[in-house]
Amino acid sequence: MRLRLLSPVALLGLMASGLVRAAGPDVVRVAPALDPILSAGARLEVVRQDYFGAAEGPIWVRDGGYLLFSDMAANRIFRWDPGPKRLSVHAEKVGFTTMDLTNVRVLDNGRLLVALHGSNGLALDREGRVVYCSHGGRSIVRLEKDGTRTTLVDAWDGKRLNGPNDLTLKSDGSIYFSDMGSQLRGGAAKSPDREIDFQGLFRLRPDGTLQVISRTLTNGLAFSPDEKYLYTTGAGGGITRHEVQPDGSIANGALHVDMRNQPRKGNADGVRVDKDGYIFSSGPGGAWISAPDGTHIGTIYTPDKNATDNATSVAFGDADGKGLYITTVRSVYHIRMKRSAW
After folding, report:
1. CB of 299 closer than 8 Å to CB of 285
2. If I label 296, which of 39, 57, 102, 313 is the partner at 20 to 30 A Cα–Cα?
3. How many Å from the N-terminal Cα to the C-terminal Cα in the chain?
4. How far apart are CA 35 and CA 152, in angstroms?
5. Which tens digit of pLDDT belongs to each residue from 155-171?
6. Would residue 273 be called left, alpha or beta, if left means φ above 0 and alpha means ψ between -120 and 50 degrees?
7. Predicted local distance difference test score (pLDDT) of residue 107
8. Cβ(113)–Cβ(124) below 8 Å
9. DSSP assignment, residue 184?
10. pLDDT of residue 100
11. Would residue 307 be called left, alpha or beta, if left means φ above 0 and alpha means ψ between -120 and 50 degrees?
12. What pTM was computed for the model?
């Protein structure tokens, strides 16, 4: 077998596509509070690199020990089994159900132009069923254990939802979800297909009624461990913390994790909170880790280069809860932590 050395130009091309890891640390320690959580020398493991069209919404299924995540462009929910290192399709046609893409927004993922009409955020309910945001279906859908699907909500005040983006479930059975409509042609704010005139945050109550929580642009969302606070992304230059009220509404929102004025491009998207209140999220350059008080303590840089240069979301996983999975637009990564997030 004859080996051929790559020219500097060819090597730079591969690095730009995300196929070769750039030199330098994967983890950057910003504050000492990172030390009990993650080693500064920890390295990313590639689950799949430069493979997906628009990866999003990862969740770990503890009853089975596998990762699920969306590929909005493929219109599929994928499953990753870390033991055999096997990637498979968990569910298909989780967004659009026909190939009529006339009204689809197109995203430049850094390598391809892709349509965003699949599922986005995923969550598990109290019975272990997958609940997902259907971009193309403009609805919140539950995947039943027998494989059938139940549409939980697709309209508010007689108007079709713009397009749910992310969701989180509260212990009382409520489903909080953002309705961005980011898949709509022409952009959500000006799309002729939009029926609700704001990109807001909703709560689907346990009785099936829909409550408007906020009329402010919301993207990712997650509760604090005690559910006293709701963290949201999408506006304000980072992560906003809100106080959860007894009626399920939120109040006194304030910027909690400041991502403005960073040398790398990007902003917060998906967000998760561990058992001790530490905040893990997408952020400039990759994935951010912040202390409960909002202080940025570390960054996990991902090698992918795309329109935003940051991760799309994160999820805690592995049998011991010490795994952190990171989705970017085109790739999925994994890194081991020192302590469990559960």
Report:
1. yes
2. 57
3. 48
4. 42
5. 999 999 999 999 999 99
6. beta
7. 74
8. no
9. B
10. 59
11. alpha
12. 0.91
